Amino acid sequence: MYEKLHGVRVITFCIMSNHFHILLEVPKPPEQLPSNAALIALIRETQGDAVADRLAQWFKMWTEQNNPDAIERERERWFGQMWNLSQFMKVLKQRFSQWFNGWRTICLSFYKNGCIYVQINNSVECADRDFWLLVM
Length: 136
Description:
mainly alpha
């Protein structure tokens, strides 16, 4: 879901006892951004009907009010999250922390001590496929 919304591709990942490793491909944004209808369809698929319907209502209202600036600001807000490693990692780490903390409370206090992120967001650019294979 997050992978599709943010326009990134997860090549591989490994979940450890208190952290994860992930190899991502972050493509460049397209030359022409998707239409409003395509954006709403993507949001419907990844965020659900309520969020998509609300966005569609806003776009309709702003169109009726002849307010293209509001539409453009909202499009920039959504598209600013896409094809963006930092935004994707922010959401992924938040969700992982929530999952980890919930999982940890269910388990015995085996993982009671320790920080989830000792070295935060250590990333290395993998420019070619041969390096991907080496990393995997």
